[in-house]
Amino acid sequence: MTQTLSLTSSASAPNLRAALRRAERPGRLGALALALPALLFLIVTFAAPIGLFLTTAVRNPEVRDTLPQTAAALAGWDGDGPAAPGEAAFAALLADLTRAKEDNTAAALGKRLNYESAGMRSRIMSVVRHLGNFKDGALAPQFAALDPVWASPDLWAIIKRNAAPVTPYYLLTAVDLQQDASGAITRVAEDQAVFLGILGRTLWIAGLVTGATLLLGFPTAYVISLAPARIAGFMLLMVLLPLWTSLLVRTTAWVVLLQTDGVINQVLLALGLTTEKLQLMLTRFGTVTAMTHIQLPFTILPIFSVMKSIPEGQMRAARSLGAPPFFAFWRVYAPQTLPGVTAGCLMTFILSLGYYITPALVGGPRDQMLSNFIATYINRDLNWGMAAALAGLLLVMTLSIYLLFLRLVGAERIKLG
Amino acid sequence: MNTMTLERRRLGDEPSPTPAASPMVVFERVQKTYDGRTLVVEDLNLAVRRGEFLTMLGPSGSGKTTTLMMLGGFEQPTNGRILLEGQAVERLPPERRDIGFVFQNYALFPHMTVADNVGFPLRYRGIRGAEAARRVAEALAMVRLDGLGERRPAQLSGGQQQRVALARAMVFKPKLILMDEPLGALDKQLREHMQIEIRRIQQQLGITMVYVTHDQSEALTMSDRIAVFNDGRIQQLSDPVTLYDRPENRFVAGFIGDNNTLPCEFLGSENGLAFVRMKDGTRLAASGPAHPARSDLTVSLRPERLGLDDAGSAENRIKARVLDKTFLGDRVRLTLEAFGTERLVASLPAAEGAAVLPGRDVGMAFSAADCRLLAR
Amino acid sequence: MWLPAYATRSERLCRLAVVLFAFAVLAFLIGPLFVVFPLSVSKDPFFTFPIREYSWRWYADFFQNARWMHSLVNSLVAAAASTLIATFLGTLAALGISRPGFPARKAVMALMISPMIMPVVIVAVGAYMFFGSLGLTNTRTGLVLAHAALAIPFVVVTVLSALSTYDSNLSRAGASLGAGPVSVFFAVTLPLILPGIVSGALLAFAVSFDEVIVALFLTGADQRTLPVQMFSGIRDQINPTIMAAASLLTTVSIALFVLLNLIRRVKRA
């Protein structure tokens, strides 16, 4: 439809658009109705769970739920002042902790407050242990007798601050920042600043893997695209087959290959390339090698499908116009492969960011990526807030590159096999 | 389907017209837009007569295929009404219109045999078993494909596939058959053969056909009437001879056959003839719709209607210089310079043109009827 | 090799090097897949080559061990169930998305595809938390739902690609011949896109059958799948029975892959 007629009369245009909408509505709704079950299913089983999980990164229920009276008593207290709050606050805390002891919630509270300031857990638990020893009369001195810190405002300021329903604590920690006693945001101490390092490591490993797959994949895709149909089909099978094999099996294979007594070391020794066995397991090299192996098909396939579509005649034309071979390749052929390179590399980078199994099984402690830390916070530390904050970080990176992918490549261009 | 139509008739608020006189299809002020800004079909009013072969002819994007799709029920008009035998069908889905449709690429079901393809519409009309088999065989015989029922579409040639599509569209005896460039994929010889075949079947069955093509010779060969589409409008609706001899505007003149288009000025009319002045002052007698003094007038002159000046009865005689001569076998083609610096083309039988030499002046003559005065 | 006639000598050398390089990369790709097979039939419990003595003892171990067998059955059941859900929902969605008037196609596609690119740990933890609140952790239902969500994009993409080669005039032809939308779907569309749907189902099966992380979080001892059983085994002490399990998984993958290619070939014929 090239020679459509432009409407000059602006008055009828809105009517036309309305008429068009009216005429098209049943078709649109019918199409949407078909996709709706899958959309709802994905929202309920996929999007909503992830969203809910991410909110735990800012949720702060412990102080609010466990110390309601204390929170109320501290509401009127000036947390920035030099003095600890009045007797009422001590009484409220005592009442709240008595209740907490019965409900078995004191430990969780202590753990939560300990994130804010080391030592809080033992202070809370010490009060809980000595609940029976408190006597009538002024409470402040009795608290101070357990730990002199109770007399200073800092500790109370932490309780007051965390009475809020949301906290920036986990998110700040995930990027190595903290809120000091006065509420100002500062960098954490050098020895505690680990998370930016993990983030950088995750990006670095994903980048290394992407680079390695491109380096290995580009020439391979090129050769496959040039090979005669029969051989090319066979070569493609060799690219597709690993894609179908379980990621766990491929990782297992690398565990076996990389072991100190493994196949690679045996071969290297037999060939005399090394005189002693190399440490390959639990190394960055091993992790990146295994990940490169797993991701290689994702990079090769889009590049191959773009190369396949470049007409052969173009290189002939470039040569007949006088371009030397390398120049013809670099100036005529390579730029046209860019869409495939972009698609393959972005996909590999996105997927590499989220790796868990391979670093967990092949990598050492210094090769663990964000996913591994998220799992550890859930499984070992039961620290949901921290896990959610790190997940948020990982998700932001993944989604930004996914959006870039959608923009540059488009979801409808994804092909499988 | 049939009971449904009857009920609708009974309920209709207008008295039912006599079937023979009423048109098969009526488009009433039909508009179509895909994007809400541009109209693909601008304001269509068209009546298709019972039993006629009507061709919608036009360049791609002219709205002809969209019109056909609206009639078939695959597109909805944005505005306006479409009446099929007097019933409004804009909201009626295609499967309840009882219209046969032959698609550009045939749209044969590749997973079914030829017989299953042709028998497909019978399944949905409650015709089964021996009766269905008989109807299928009959339809295949009609398109001269007897005995190929067990083949798959992929095993047939393009021409055979085309015939299957035709058999499938008529096996259920629809009231109307629509065809969307059905011969576009065939080579020239086969195409000309199929043109005659389709016309034969149409006349044999007395069925109404609406045919879409961009091929003017196909339209001229097959049609009872031709609707020429451009820019979402019908430019002219008439029988092939009228369309060729008396185009009503410059688009039709240029689209159908070859034409010399020359600017001119309107002087006046007399005895049914129009008089015009060419650029160099030459006066010509012309025919055509009477035009007031418009500034964008031209005369159109077909190359084969220009003859050597043999002192016959033609109203117009001019002198021209022969710039070039091309031999085409049965004819010669002359490139001429006349009316000052205008170029025009003339086509003469080879024997007549033998004596004409490039570089010489030559006298040409043509009748006022062949010199059409047209506005844009 | 595969060079135009006008190639120069240095170009030929260059090309030879690239071709050799490509085959080395292919060897790198395919080699590790076949490491597990010989080790799974080696009598030695150590993973060393050359293999001195062959034996099926690790397979016997696998098939006689109740825990391994239980996990194999769990995997098959979960994969079959999630394949059914994903194939049904994904096919329906692809049919809708491929319609010309589909609203907000880009956004819907972005959401539909996202399970494919989402870090699986995030999916797993999210499901663990959400399903936990519904009492669906340590149930097969929870695992099946989560796996179906992960598999849906694979079905959507394959069925969409099947639909992209489907000529919509065929549906129009069906309608013009008197078949209603449902009849057209079952008589014309479905038979023609069936290879795409089956490919999508095979992929969905593979996605669920091979998935480790979500299963790690969502299953208890009773629903433990084969990959989870393997994963814990590798973490503790890698033993040759794991090689037998890995070989079986690989065999299933290769079988699915061969099946897929057969379907494609039939479709082309």
From TrEMBL, chain C:
Transmembrane regions: 12-37, 72-95, 107-131, 143-163, 242-263
Domain of life: Bacteria
Cellular localisation: Cell inner membrane; Cell membrane
Domain ABC transmembrane type-1: 72-260
Record Gene3D superfamilies: MetI-like (1.10.3720.10)
Keyword Transport: yes
Primary localization: membrane
Protein topology in the membrane: Multi-pass membrane protein
InterPro entries, per the entry: MetI-like, MetI-like_sf
Keyword Nucleotide-binding among UniProt keywords: no
Sorted UniProt keywords: Cell inner membrane, Cell membrane, Membrane, Transmembrane, Transmembrane helix, Transport
Similarity section: Belongs to the binding-protein-dependent transport system permease family.
Name of the molecule in the record: ABC transporter permease
Originating species: Shinella yambaruensis
Organism lineage: Bacteria, Pseudomonadati, Pseudomonadota, Alphaproteobacteria, Hyphomicrobiales
